[in-house]
């Protein structure tokens, strides 16, 4: 058995990283509460919640201190992929297909990414990082992994990583201690692309009101 194939199998069966706080124990922000309240309001508008239920859940949202407390308020209203935020540490797998992860989601300190002939798109612009250093554990053959990161994040291959094609289109962080996305594992016959959102265009002329 070749070392590459052993690495591939190891990436599939590697245990999940359980270090750090659980996603549901992280403190909720005002923006997280507003996301949940918006979902509750939509549910009341189309009849999924009564006026009394809506009022009770909105009050509970304002009292909620953690993401887990907030998540309970919309579990019976929306499918998992449409929840105001996602709290899971499932590996990202794309086998001859496209797999996306984005929105408001809690990013564990290690993300296993497996792709065989597929495309993986990971959007971290609105994500909540559990750690200032996130390891993207790659097991990619003939696939493409695209990372969309906010400004101020450093994306770099890990020591010993076998990432033969890495296109870094991010802007250099200004902070001396930026959040770090570290690319570990291997990529053969494929590529990794990291980019920042494009800055807004500045027009040469302003239209008169």
TrEMBL record:
<protein>
    <recommendedName>
        <fullName>DUF1707 domain-containing protein</fullName>
    </recommendedName>
</protein>
<dbReference type="Pfam" id="PF08044">
    <property type="entry name" value="DUF1707"/>
</dbReference>
<feature type="domain" description="DUF1707">
    <location>
        <begin position="26"/>
        <end position="77"/>
    </location>
</feature>
<dbReference type="InterPro" id="IPR012551">
    <property type="entry name" value="DUF1707_SHOCT-like"/>
</dbReference>
């Amino acid at each position: 058995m070749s070392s590459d194939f052993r690495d591939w199998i190891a990436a599939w069966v590697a245990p999940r990283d359980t270090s750090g706080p659980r996603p549901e124990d992280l403190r909720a922000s005002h923006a997280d509460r507003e996301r949940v309240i918006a979902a509750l309001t939509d549910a009341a508008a189309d009849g999924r919640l009564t006026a009394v239920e809506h009022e009770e859940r909105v009050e509970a949202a304002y009292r909620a201190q953690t993401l887990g407390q907030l998540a309970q308020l919309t579990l019976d209203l929306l499918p998992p992929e449409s929840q105001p935020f996602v709290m899971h540490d499932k590996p990202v797998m794309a086998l001859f297909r496209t797999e996306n992860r984005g929105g408001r989601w809690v990013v564990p300190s290690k993300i296993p990414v497996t792709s065989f002939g597929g495309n993986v798109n990971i959007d971290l612009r609105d994500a909540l990082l559990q750690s200032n250093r996130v390891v993207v554990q790659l097991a990619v053959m003939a696939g493409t992994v695209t990372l969309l990161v906010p400004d101020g994040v450093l994306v770099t291959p890990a020591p010993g990583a076998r990432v033969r094609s890495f296109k870094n289109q991010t802007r250099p962080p200004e902070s001396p201690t930026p959040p770090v996305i570290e690319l570990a594992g291997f990529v053969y016959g494929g590529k990794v692309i990291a980019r920042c959102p494009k800055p807004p265009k500045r027009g040469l002329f302003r239209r008169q009101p």
